[in-house]
Amino acid sequence: MLKTAFVAATALAALAGAAPASAKTEINMWFGLSGRLQNEVLAQCDRFNKSQDLYTIKCTREGDYDEIFQKAMAAVRAGNQPHILQVVDRGTGTMMLSGAVIPAYQLAEEQGLKINWDDYFPVIGNYYAGRDGKLWAFPFNSSTAMVYYNTDALKAAGYTTFPDTWEGFDDLLVALRDKAGSSCPLTWNIDLWSDMEQFSAIHNVPVASKNNGYDGLDAQLELNKTIFVKHMERQKRWFDAGLAKYDPNFNNRRDMFVTGRCAIMFDSIAGFTSTDELATPKGTKWTVAQLPHNKDVTPINSLVGGAALWTMKGFSKDEYKAVGAFYQFIAQPEQQKLWSDGTGYIPVTKSAYNELVASGYYKQKGKINRDLAVQSLTRAAPTPLSKGVRLGNYVEIRNIITEELQKALNNQVTVQQAIDTATTRGNQLLKRFADTYAGRTLP
Amino acid sequence: MIKRVVFEDRWLPYLLIGPQLLIIFLFFYWPTGQALFWSFTLEPPFGGDAVWVGLRNLTEIVTSPVYHIAIRNTLIMSVATTVISLGLGLIFAVFADRGLRGMIFYKTAIMWPYAVAAPVAAIAWQFIFQPQIGIFGIVNQWYPGLWNPALNGAHALTMVIIASSWTSITFNFVFFLAGLQAIPNNLVEAAAMDGAGPMRRFFDLVFPLISPTFFLLLVLNVTTSFTEGFGIINVMTQGGPGNATQTMVYKIYQDGFIGLDLSSSSAQSLLLMILIIAVTLLQFRFVERKVHYAGSDKGEASE
């Protein structure tokens, strides 16, 4: 009985495996976005499948950013990697050295893809490019950090516009408490993406030597010597004064904001649509502003965040043709507009952005101020310090800095001591990473 | 004289244990061997040429202050959860070991938590301990800032210990209750007639009789306490705030799976394995001597 079942199952499996070979070329993509964003990715894959009848793409969510990275590692070792892998910004260095990917520029050459590389916003392209400026991955979902604020609360505090500087932000928090009577001016967490990376880029100061790691694996952290320390001390003052309510859980923070209990929060522009959907039914009036900067400083561009699509090695020519077709499809201005509208991410190409501006998109109800993210990213030409951060073991290094800063919030150490310890610990990890890839260099 | 059954065919026994050995090899010895090799190399995340570095991974871990914190947290958690869950498990079992009305209901209710998966338990406890809206958060209304597990390390560790003890109390309860019910009633009654009070009966009679069960549970609890807190910590604190709830096993996960430092992670699991083996051997060497097994031969524990 069992034997018959087994034979039958094997035969079925063989049949199922053989069937699609005669049909379209099928490729796989693994991505890490969830909730509303997940549906938007699936919708995009669906549009690609319907737009032509040569290829099929199967898009699957394989966990969050960290989880798909882990799964991809195991998959590459086992030889069953997907064709396309979505990798978060901070994994760029590891991917470049992995030996498991086909660089984007190389794929484009081999497949004869018509891609206007200059159409990508420089700050986005640079994040995923080698030193020669050639792109290794296709920019996919791109965002930057913003301030989300409750417009009614600001009015009550006597403000009509959002302050440009952190000094002004200090005063605003006090005014929200004293004039507007807010018990929670800011719902807050240590978020190094905006506190460290964005802040350092905007102020043109380094996170690490060797141009934030772009110029060599022997880079060392420098964050304990920059104004980042002062910036964290400022935030600790808010926390100590009760102006900032600490909550490490993002959903809780957003909940406090959309219900109007807290007046300000920090989040990526990618959360725009989700926040809108949550806040509108509750009658909370809100909008976004660019991150403030220190006074007497000319701010430059903020840093891009998000993820890019990497092409994995080990497939046939036909399959790469399909991969190329998918990349070309999603780069079309029409697709970029749909993607940006559905998610909150910014369009990654200048042409798509310009079309949106020309069509009056950012003047529509519910879309106002969304273009501030693009303005923040393109405020100046990126410098070697505002292109991005490319460090090995970077996920762990960020965890270390957060851990040490939590000790400072709990008054076990000072902010300076915390960042000094984090720098020492982080440098050890950088050394380990460089030694793991001994004799190799970043492209 | 011990009875022996001997196989007549020389190869049959090997054939019979073969599948089991294969499974153990595939899921234990092979990965352990791999981890052992990685412990002495620097292994790139996506594979490729690993660099042999000798003892570097181990020395870096052993000398790292953060690892010392992880060892300390592991020992605190291990001792605290073992004491709480064995202690409460035993007390509940003693109370339950009587002819009370509605006994079945109590027993089932007490056994329930064991069926709750650790992450689910962690979420439930998170609601209870949440400083603003949780039930336990009421202490903050009496005295603001009294309870703050999001930033206070001691609070966070306490919270994790309570949640992870809660899940294992019931496991111990079931074993203790079975042990208690195996004690013949006439022994206890005889002691009572000789004038021994409840406390005296428990310490001089009942506890020695269930000591084999106690020892078994002690070994199981200590061993699992090194690894079991993982699900709870991962949901409730992620090792924070500031390493306060980072145990050895959570650090292995964090460094290996999130940090992608496979070599350091492997070296740490090697150390953890050595520690668990050492602790278990110590228990057998010192605690087992005091255990009173029923029957003359040591191997025939009645439970």
What does this protein structure show overall?
The complex is a heterodimer of chains A (443) and B (303). Chain A has two domains: 7-143 and 304-363, D-Maltodextrin-Binding Protein, domain 2 (3-Layer(aba) Sandwich); 145-303 and 391-436, Periplasmic binding protein-like II (D-Maltodextrin-Binding Protein, domain 2). In chain A, helix 2 packs antiparallel against helix 15, helix 12 crosses helix 13 and helix 15 crosses helix 16. In chain A, helix 2 (35-51) links the parallel strand 1 and strand 2 (55-61). Chain A is of the alpha/beta class. Chain A has helices spanning 2-18, 35-51, 65-78, 92-97, 104-111, 122-127, 151-156, 166-178, 192-202, 209-212, 228-240, 250-258, 272-282, 317-331, 333-343, 350-358, 372-377, 394-409, 415-436, and strands at residues 25-31, 55-61, 84-88, 101-102, 138-143, 145-150, 186-188, 244-246, 264-268, 286-290, 305-312. In chain A, strands 1, 2, 3, 4, 5 and 11 form a six-stranded mixed β-sheet that branches. In chain A, strands 9-6-10 form a three-stranded antiparallel β-sheet. Chain B is mostly helical. Chain B has one domain: MetI-like fold, CATH 1.10.3720.10. Chain B is 67% helix and 1% strand. Chain B has helices spanning 12-39, 56-62, 65-96, 103-111, 118-129, 139-142, 153-181, 185-193, 198-209, 211-236, 248-258, 262-286, and strands spanning 41-42, 51-52. Chain B starts with 11 loop residues before the first helix and ends in a 17-residue tail after the last helix. Residues 296-303 of chain B have low confidence and may be disordered. The chains are: A alpha/beta (443), B mainly alpha (303). At the A-B interface, helix 3, helix 18 and helix 19 of A face helix 11 of B.
